[in-house]
Each structure stands twice: as structure tokens, then as C-alpha cells.
């Protein structure tokens, strides 16, 4: 039996329409005169986000790095939510390559506390600290079970940052999941940030790539940083062709992934309420707290895989399940059953140990 892969939506495969578009893509050298298919994808991305221009990059990690380099200078301070993906998984690029410093801002479910942010922005340059030059938001928020930032919160952050002379970048790796959950076009989200990036290689199912969108002058600067960091590709229209199909055909179906995630969360909550609060699941990420089982998350992950379900373990006590287009109701129910089996197994083992 094939593994039910719930580690991430990056495991999605390109559709037949994407493969056909790749076979027929018009190609050029994107590092020289430019690739015409890449240009089409960049224009489409800029249109969908309401920005002047866009830049195609190999990954979301590089898109965030290039955005930070383009907005700031060496020794600048970047303000982010304390659980931001950029801090948790990308900080090496921020510090090693950019010589940038970050200040974590407390908050809830991915949304920075606005009062704390204002205090940090108001600190200014002094003998004791750096002047903040960039504020970063994240929607959907990976570490907050795919939480979507409310538009009013984004508007407040943007207004506050600009009042203090700081620009705003948004890590929108799953931007279109956020748009579908809000029932609003991506452009509505992007209007509350100077730059925004999104991946076509997650739930949208294209094989490779992310887009950084923003003002034309900043995107021109970003192109130089893309080359500097080794991201300038050649006949990348082969990949960009799949990204065009992804934006044209795969956005609305993300609602199916959200329904699958809610189905999964509800089933896990029925096993034990400590595992997940199903009411907090907004998009396609389900973070599961397994500390009550007294079994490490890594062991959970290994045992689930033995039962045919592949989930990611994060830290000592958390699992992450991510739904995508290869996951339907049948796979979700199988995953719920596997978790239930292990929950009972671990409980029985605990009773045996206690009796001994």
C-alpha cells in the first residue's frame, strides 16, 4: 500500500496540463535576454497580487532572502512574529548572508501584538540598538497551523510600519490558501504590504518555484541579488510554464484541501481533545500536540509511517499534517484511524509500565 504522504503540500505532482505546458513552452535564457515564458509567469504573478512587477525564483526561502536583502542594508533590524518561518527555518540566510538582525515580536496565532510592534518600531537608532528598517508578516502562518492573518490586522501593521519609516514584506508562501479562506482575491491581501512572495510548488502543484512581487524598482534590485545568490536560471520557462497553469487552474480547488484538513482535525479531536482544536483550523495545515501521550513526536512519526501514514515531527511533542490534492476523504480517515491505533497502543503501554 502506498504511503499517505501528509508531510507537506510540496509533495504534490504536476498535473497533466502542467506537463503538456512544459513540453510546449517557449524558451529563452533567463540569465541573458530573458525567457519569454518566465516573463509571462512574472506578469501574471504581478497582476494577481496588484504589484508592478514580479521575479521568478527557485524557492520560497530564496524569495524571502532576496526580499530582505532588497529592502535593507547590512546591520539593519528586521521585526517579525516570534514564530515566523523566517526565524525558525531561514535565519541563517538573514544573518550570514545579509548581516541582518531580527527582533521577535510576541503575538497570537501568527499575528504580532500591535502595541509591542509599535514599541519596537519607536525605539529608533540609539547607542543600545539598531533602527528597525523592515517589518515582516506571514500568511498563512506555518507554525500557527496555517492561520490566516485578518486583513484589518495586516492593514494596521502596514500603516504603523510606514508611519515609522519601515517597509513591509509578507511571506505568503501559501498566499492563495489565505485568499481562498478569506474569500478575497490575493490582491486584497497584497495591498497591505510593499512586497509579497508566494510558492507555486506547494498546494498549487507546480514542481518548482516562487514569485516575489512588488514595486518595479525594488524588483529590478532583487534581480541583482538573485544572480548574486545563484538563483539566476537559464531555460527556466520549462518550469515557469507549470507555474502559469498553477495560477490559472489550481487556486479555487484549494478549498478542498481546507475541507480535508478540517475533517482530519475533527477526527483527531474525537480521539482526544488534547491533540488539536479543530475550531482553529482555517486552511490545510494541522499541528497536533502529542505531549499527553508521553511519547516523543519522532516516535509518533516513525510508528505512523509503519502504519502507512507519513507525517512530520516538529520539536519534542508536535506533529504536522498538511493536506493537498493527493489527499481525499479516504486518506484522511486512514490517517485518523492510524493515530487512534497508536493512541490506544501508547495508553496500553503506559498502563503496563505503571503496573510493573
Descriptive keywords:
356 residues, alpha/beta, Aspartate Aminotransferase, domain 2, Aspartate Aminotransferase, domain 1, seven-stranded mixed beta sheet, 14 strands
Notes on the protein architecture:
The chain has 13 helices and 14 strands. It is an alpha/beta fold and 356 residues long. It folds into two domains: 238 residues, Aspartate Aminotransferase, domain 2; 95 residues, Aspartate Aminotransferase, domain 1 (Alpha-Beta Complex). The strands form four sheets. A seven-stranded mixed beta sheet has the order 2-10-9-8-7-3-4, with helices on both faces. The longest helix is centred in the C-terminal third of the chain and has 27 residues. The radius of gyration is 21 Å and the shape is globular.
User: What is the CATH topology assignment of the largest domain?
Assistant: Aspartate Aminotransferase, domain 2
Q: Determine the number of helices (DSSP H or I, runs of at least 4 residues).
A: 13
The succession of helices and strands, N to C, reads: EHHEHEHEEEHEHEHHEEHHHEHEEEH
Mean pLDDT over all positions: 94
Strand residue percentage? 15-25%
Note the main sheet: 7 strands, mixed
Rounded to the nearest angstrom, the distance between the terminal CA atoms is: 37 Å
- What level of helicity do the residues show? 40-55%
The poorly predicted ranges are none
Number of domains: 2
Radius of gyration: 21 Å
Instruction: Give the second-level CATH assignment, the architecture of the largest domain.
Output: 3-Layer(aba) Sandwich
Helix and strand content put the structural class at alpha/beta
Count of strand segments: 14
